[in-house]
Design goal:
Helix content: 10-25%
Strand content: 35-45%
């Protein structure tokens, strides 16, 4: 039976504009370059000093050697700051035509009109567009870009910035601390329920460059929010780097859902770090779809600090030819009656490598904790690879813990059965893959479920060859 899959036709995601910018920092990483980024961004002194210390930490920390091979990354060949030829605006018509066309084709303004309470759009290193519905402003919700937050809300930013994810955590977090640019800041006041999602979309256009956006979200006591993050980039022959950072603070009794669809191009190294600190009876749900990128190392983390804190992770990755997607989830149970539920799925084809790498730690004082982990991998041919590398560190007996892992190939019997019901081999295979991914797409808002299903269809296009 033929099972060879062709490469994805990335169509709209590979639109690229001329590399036309207002300012592009020279390649490399030196204190002088960091000083120049800080000057270009008009940083306050405390942020400039923070960046320089982060660079010192970056230079001291080793490269990670336990995951995918990162030897092709040469920071001397990466420009860490690119400012597009535009200022941030709240009026879509004021965005330059070439940038606007890119976002139009990606469906951003349309999504805003239909289903979003607020949108931020980042192009290379700067947010170029930001808007929010008036009713949220009147409720005291703050949703702006990180640079504005540093200037206008310095106390709240200083209190939280890189405290959830410290720069000493690993080398690429330290790099992020030195060169971060753009990203979103959200504060939801006590007991405010944001019913319609907020979204940020990150687009990298410039070749041989990096994107290092910082997202900081604070959901105060009893409040709730759904935040959506989308990312894409066109394909170039040289390596691009994405090393963003997401910090989520979810206070007592609050709720946050954080959804991501990442569709980077096949020359992107995606080394992102995401973490949540969760209070008493609060909950964070992560929904994640990873497509594209040459290498991904991405392990969102929930720290369950409050009694009764809860978290759920629902994720899928799709690794094709030349891709090594090393993804997973980390959860730390630090208090009584905390609970976590992990549902991870991966698909690999054409020699792609999909790895689920995870940590569950249930500490001594987390009595009555519950954790359920399920990871499933589907390989679509004989040359792909799938690995599950869990670490389960259970330090108390008073827990309920289960871990289930399943790795398998697409079933010839299932394909034969569907073909006997009149489907082509290609349609049968696509139906099985979509069914496998269905629990993930069900967790996304309808527009993003459609985008994810479209990406799966693109990956499977011409799958019988």
């Amino acid at each position: 039976m033929k099972t060879k899959l062709d490469e994805i036709n990335r169509n709209i995601y590979d639109i690229k504009n001329k590399d036309d910018y207002d300012f592009k920092i020279k390649k490399g990483l030196t204190p002088e370059i960091i000083e120049e980024i800080s000057k270009q961004k008009n940083d306050p002194d405390w942020m400039r000093n923070f960046r320089l210390k982060a660079l010192e930490t970056y230079n001291k920390l080793p490269m990670p050697t336990w995951g995918p091979d990162l030897s092709e990354l040469n920071m001397d060949e990466i420009a860490t700051y690119v400012r597009p030829k535009t200022k941030m605006t709240g009026n879509w018509e004021d965005v330059p035509e070439d940038i606007k066309n890119t976002f139009d084709k990606l469906g951003i303004p349309e999504a805003e009109k239909k289903s979003l309470a607020g949108v931020g759009a980042q192009y290379d290193s700067e947010v170029v567009y930001h808007s929010m519905k008036e009713e949220l402003l009147s409720q005291g919700v703050i949703y702006t870009d990180m640079e504005t937050a540093v200037r206008e809300y310095p106390d709240i930013v200083k209190e939280h910035f890189m405290k959830c994810v410290p720069v000493t955590d690993h080398k690429f977090v330290a790099l992020h601390g030195a060169v971060w640019s753009g990203g979103s800041f959200v504060y939801v006041p006590k007991n405010v329920k944001v019913d319609i999602p907020l979204q940020s979309y990150f687009r990298l256009n410039s070749p041989e460059s990096g994107q290092f956006e910082h997202t900081l979200i604070i959901v105060d006591e009893g409040a709730s929010l759904h935040f959506i993050e989308g990312c894409s980039a066109p394909k170039y022959n040289k390596v691009n780097l994405h090393a963003g950072c997401v910090e989520l603070y979810v206070k007592d009794g609050a709720y946050l859902r954080y959804s991501t669809i990442e569709n980077w191009s096949k020359n992107m190294l995606n080394l992102n770090t995401k973490r949540a600190i969760i209070g008493k009876n609060a909950q964070v749900d992560w929904v994640s779809g990873s497509f594209g990128s040459k290498i991904s190392m991405l392990y969102p983390m929930s720290i369950l600090n409050g009694e009764g804190a809860r978290t759920e992770y629902t994720g899928i990755s799709f690794a094709g030819k030349g891709q090594n997607l090393d993804t997973g989830f980390k959860v730390i149970h630090n208090n009584k009656n905390t609970s976590s539920l992990v549902n991870s799925k991966s698909i690999s084809k054409n020699g792609g490598t999909a790895t689920y790498r995870a940590l569950v730690r249930i500490n001594e004082n987390a009595k009555g904790a519950k954790c359920n982990v399920s990871c499933e991998s589907l390989m679509l041919d004989d040359i792909s690879r799938s690995d599950t590398i869990p670490v389960n560190d259970i330090r108390t007996d008073d827990v309920e813990f289960s871990h289930e892992a399943k790795i398998g190939k697409i079933s010839d019997k299932s394909i034969f059965y569907l073909m006997s019901r009149g489907l082509s081999e290609e349609d049968a295979k696509a139906m099985i893959v979509r069914g496998f991914a269905d629990p993930i797409s069900k967790e996304l808002p309808i527009e993003y479920a459609a985008e994810m299903n479209n990406l799966i269809n693109l990956e499977l296009q011409g799958s019988i060859g």
